Amino acid sequence: MEKVNLKKVRSQAKVVGTLVTVAGAMLMTLYKGPIVEMLWSKHSSAHQGYGNSTPTSTDKDWLKGSILLIFACLAWAAFFVLQVHLTLKQTILERESKKAKPF
């Protein structure tokens, strides 16, 4: 895992960026405003049954959506951490293989 040194500006920016991203995702999923109609979904039949649903089913959907969105943000962050580790390992292996070659 990546080590975070909060005394460095670079690490502080990473922490703030992560918090802003997760907070934005939570705001978008937990804010219960009106449905935003997009041009391509204006005549979609998916929104027709939305107003007829019970409050408990929509609350469950909001909770599921929040959990899945948090999971997606964490998975995306983990992907970048994994990518850094793999890149570092590849660089080390390339250096070792260059040392092993006699020419």
Automatic annotation (TrEMBL):
<dbReference type="InterPro" id="IPR030184">
    <property type="entry name" value="WAT1-related"/>
</dbReference>
<keyword id="KW-1133">Transmembrane helix</keyword>
<dbReference type="GO" id="GO:0022857">
    <property type="term" value="F:transmembrane transporter activity"/>
</dbReference>
<keyword id="KW-0812">Transmembrane</keyword>
<dbReference type="GO" id="GO:0016020">
    <property type="term" value="C:membrane"/>
</dbReference>
<feature type="transmembrane region" description="Helical">
    <location>
        <begin position="12"/>
        <end position="31"/>
    </location>
</feature>
<feature type="transmembrane region" description="Helical">
    <location>
        <begin position="67"/>
        <end position="88"/>
    </location>
</feature>
<keyword id="KW-0472">Membrane</keyword>
<protein>
    <recommendedName>
        <fullName>WAT1-related protein</fullName>
    </recommendedName>
</protein>
